[in-house]
Specification:
Layout lengths: L1 H14 L14 E6 L4 E11 L5 E9 L4 E11 L5 E10 L2 E12 L5 E9 L4 E11 L5 E10 L2 E12 L5 E9 L5 E11 L5 E10 L4 E14 L2 E11 L2 E12 L5 E9 L4 E12 L2 E11 L2 E10 L14 E7 L7 E6 L3 E9 L4 E9 L2 E5 L9 E9 L2 E9 L2
Antiparallel strand pairs: 1-2, 1-20, 2-3, 3-4, 4-5, 5-6, 6-7, 7-8, 8-9, 9-10, 10-11, 11-12, 12-13, 13-14, 14-15, 15-16, 16-17, 17-18, 18-19, 19-20, 21-22, 22-25, 23-24, 23-26, 26-27
């Protein structure tokens, strides 16, 4: 037995496989395909591995090279004894091995709330400071302030902060973002104000820009929700403000089946005189739940195939309705100036969401309460540049990773 143990430890060291990994589970991967002129072609595949505590240990993203799946990058997660995600490491697959790209260390308070995040970038020989965020909370344990820092050699320099305000019902009603100038001087940059209906559902979210000349906030756009029932949104209307009036920009229409599950989600753009269809997401179900998801574009007065997503093993794959929590996260209005996300969960609870840019810098961190069912989440790209972002959603021992493309 002694020699077997030594042999096992040697094999573990040699192949980089921990004893814990032997007990990990690997759900079937999700496959994304794109439509060409006449056929579907593989594009990407995401494999998820869970550890002994049923928490996501890593997600491996693969790309299709025309004949086989090859590793592209992976995201590795570590946790403390309380189940809090303490490390997010991104590694690229190069020269037949995984190579460090960046790491983010996360620290929590006694309430398991994030109080700091530090991101380091690997330069090939050592880790360098990249980005840091600090979070403070009020007496009601609600997020009060978020301050971001850039890494500069061996010091941190402030550059951005968000301040949150709430009403008597602890509902978020205002977010003010400021840019750091110098000598502890901050310049107003943007503001969001939120109103709610009698059922405490978000009704209107208005975005403001700071007019430095007149020293006042100026409305720039707003988003208004119309509800079918409870928290089921039937329409989301986006308008832009120009000088003295509001004008239509786009709207998203939602329809549901008899079980209140998504049927169609249609995005429409205003051309100055009428609404024009642009993109659609279509959902198909069987007795076990969602089994097929398609994205289509409106062209030549008809819906044209664009992308589809399914679990590997069957084109009619089944996405299990996992009672443990988060079922799915889907990005809408991707490749636009302000994509948004719909999070589907079977239970209520708090979700932690991280947004990482293409350089690996964590540009924003969110903490939001999810209700059982559908939850709409706006990452807020108004103050971020065009590019590719990774969104990591941590909820009830599970992580979901999605790619978001912002195009302005």
């Amino acid at each position: 037995m002694k020699y077997f143990t030594i042999l096992l430890l040697f094999v573990t060291y040699l192949f980089g496989i921990s004893i814990e990994l032997q007990a990990q589970s690997s759900p079937k991967p999700w496959v994304t395909q794109e439509w060409t002129d006449s056929d579907w072609l593989n594009v990407s595949r995401v494999n998820e591995t869970k550890n002994m505590d049923n928490k996501v240990a890593q997600t491996v993203n693969e790309k299709w090279d025309g004949s086989d799946w090859i590793p592209d990058y992976r995201i590795v997660f570590e946790y403390d004894d309380n189940g809090n995600n303490t490390l997010i490491a991104i590694q690229n697959y190069e020269d037949s091995e995984w190579k460090d790209y960046n790491e983010t260390e996360i620290e929590y308070n006694n309430n398991s709330q994030v109080i700091s995040e530090v991101t380091y970038q690997w330069n090939g020989t050592e880790w360098e400071y990249s980005y840091k965020a600090e979070y403070t909370y009020n007496s009601k344990k609600l997020l009060e302030k978020e301050t971001s820092y850039f890494g500069n050699v061996d010091i941190w320099e402030e550059f951005y902060r968000l301040t949150y305000s709430y009403d008597s019902k602890n509902r978020e009603i205002e977010i003010v973002d400021e840019m750091y100038l110098f000598d502890d001087e901050w310049l107003n940059s943007g503001k969001e104000t939120v109103t709610y209906d009698d059922n405490s559902r978000e009704q209107t979210r208005t975005y403001h820009d700071w007019d430095d000349v007149n020293q006042e906030w100026v409305e720039s756009s707003r988003r208004t929700n119309t509800y079918l029932k409870e928290k089921l949104i039937s329409e989301r209307l986006t308008e832009n403000y120009d000088n003295s009036s509001w004008s239509y920009s786009k709207k998203i229409l939602y329809t549901y089946n008899d079980d209140d599950k998504y049927d169609e989600i249609i995005e429409m753009l205003w051309d100055g005189s009428a609404w024009q269809k642009k993109e659609g997401t279509f959902h198909y179900y069987n007795d076990n739940g969602l089994y097929w998801l398609e994205n289509k574009n409106w062209e030549d007065n008809d819906w044209q195939n664009s992308k589809r997503h399914f679990i590997e093993g069957s084109i009619l794959g089944v996405m299990d309705n996992d009672i443990s929590g988060l079922v799915n996260a889907r990005v809408f209005s991707n490749f636009s100036a302000n994509p948004f996300v719909i999070l589907e969960s079977n239970i209520a609870g708090r979700a932690n969401i991280a947004l990482i840019d293409i350089s690996g810098r964590m540009v924003k961190r969110y903490s939001t309460e999810l209700s059982a069912g559908r939850n709409e989440f706006n990452p807020g790209f108004e103050n971020h540049s065009s590019g590719i972002y990774m969104m990591i959603v941590n909820f009830n021992n599970s992580n979901i990773v999605r790619k978001i493309v912002v195009r302005k």
